[in-house]
Amino acid sequence: MVLFRHAKYIPTSIESWIEDGKLKLGYTSIGLNYRNFSHEFETDLEVKVNEWNNIEISYDYQYLKAVVNGKVAFFPFNKRPGNYSTACFGGFNGLDKPAIGRDLKFFHGELRSLEIRHSAFPLSDHEKAALDAQKAA
Fold first, then answer.
1. What is the pTM of this model?
2. pLDDT score at 118
């Protein structure tokens, strides 16, 4: 189920969707000669069915970070967006497919609030320590 897409007719930067009960992220970055490359990030962040969920996604050109109901996943990542375009919540058209090409359904449910900010949430000290431990392993 599609949550959020930054896309026009082609993916242009961040996407998020729920697949098999977990939050997934995609990001389309610009490459050589303006050819777009799609990146997929799988999380273990479970999205509850028929319950309110608090989902936050941020990107500060160093880390792609997702928070679902207080649980955090973050990925070192520093790519520029593939293009600047419109953002849409819940899907784009009847054949909505994220950058990774999966056939997903429009968002179906209730939405309490939606916030879009132009500044990312920085990693906390705890998250930085976890990232350092991950790099050392």
1. 0.72
2. 61
